Design the sequence.
């Protein structure tokens, strides 16, 4: 009896939905994943399962599905030695699935709740489908308000049409290039990804991405992004930052100057950056308070201390519209400095 298969496809639709509601997420997903029955897939789609987020990685392809109390991680294995994918048309040799279910248990000795995790692993067949087909299929199954994709810049060749077809509703794009000497192919790949998604995404995050004039930091920053985060941007020109139109910005760079930050603050007090809510920069510099605060009218200032040691300073400034902003400068490690600028919600 244990080897008998449940005749799910023969059930009436209403009974089929009732059965689906009793299943674990990975069991429901496997039914939709099988592609053996259009009826089963339509029932899963009708169920309207909600995802908190879906994170897709391209290069060594995988997807992480977060349902809140449960997660599913899917890894498509490329070749016997798990090679880097070459295109979205690649067909994986198999599919590794890991599920994790979070719950609470009550300890009657301590009278406290403790988290417990149930983890299970499976291996599924590839069903003869390519990476691109699987990603599109997953998009069709769930209702999700946040899709993000990480693109590794390597051997894979990207084109704008296939990117937009495979990822029709991205919220966040992450681009990483850890090649010490990026070649022309690496640079062009990053350009293609940015051109494909900049008009549509909310957030962009980049790691060591070298840009060209046709898609520069100026172009990226002038798009109405919610958040832009950059790590080790080559040849950063602070003048590019001064024309950004982003709500939340984070820059990790090799070095920056107090003079540039002073210019940034003065421009904000004179009504520049109307959409800006927060700007953070990390890098090497020498803190010179006279240069940083030159010409600024400070509403308030105080020292920032942790465990009795001074870690930095905090200042409050005001722009021409009466809006307040907080400047925090942390320099607890010599020459390694971070400046956090946060605009207040109230005047």
Sequence:
């Amino acid at each position: 009896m244990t080897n008998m298969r449940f005749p799910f496809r023969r059930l009436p639709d209403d009974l089929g939905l009732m059965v689906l509601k009793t299943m674990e997420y990975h069991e429901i997903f496997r039914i939709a994943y099988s592609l053996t029955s259009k009826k089963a897939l339509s029932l899963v789609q009708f169920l309207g399962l909600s995802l908190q987020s879906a994170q897709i990685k391209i290069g060594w392809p995988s997807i992480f599905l977060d349902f809140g109390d449960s997660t599913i991680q899917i890894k498509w294995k490329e070749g016997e030695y798990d090679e880097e994918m070459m295109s979205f048309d690649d067909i994986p040799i198999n599919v590794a699935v890991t599920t994790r279910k979070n719950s609470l248990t009550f300890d009657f000795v301590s009278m406290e709740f403790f988290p417990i995790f149930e983890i299970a692993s499976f291996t599924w067949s590839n069903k003869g489908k390519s990476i691109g087909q699987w990603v599109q299929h997953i998009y069709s199954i769930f209702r999700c308000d946040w899709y993000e994709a990480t693109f590794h810049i390597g051997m894979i060749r990207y084109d704008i049409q296939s990117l937009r077809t495979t990822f029709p509703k991205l919220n966040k794009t992450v681009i990483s290039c850890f090649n010490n000497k990026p070649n022309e192919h690496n640079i062009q790949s990053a350009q293609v990804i940015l051109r494909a998604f900049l008009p549509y995404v909310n957030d962009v995050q980049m790691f060591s991405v070298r840009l060209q004039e046709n898609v520069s930091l100026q172009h990226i920053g002038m798009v109405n992004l919610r958040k832009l985060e950059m790590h080790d941007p080559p040849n950063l020109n602070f003048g590019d930052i001064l024309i950004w139109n982003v709500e939340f910005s984070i820059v990790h760079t090799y070095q920056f100057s107090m003079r540039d930050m002073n210019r940034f603050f003065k421009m904000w007090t004179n009504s520049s950056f109307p959409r800006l809510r927060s700007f953070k920069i990390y890098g090497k510099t020498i803190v010179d308070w006279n240069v940083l605060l030159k010409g600024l009218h400070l509403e308030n200032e105080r020292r920032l201390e942790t465990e009795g040691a001074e870690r930095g300073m905090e200042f409050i400034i005001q722009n021409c519209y009466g809006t307040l902003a907080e400047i925090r400068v942390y320099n607890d490690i010599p020459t390694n400095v971070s400046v956090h600028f946060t605009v207040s919600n109230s005047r």
Observations:
- The longest helix spans residues 184-197.
- Residues 1-47 form one domain.
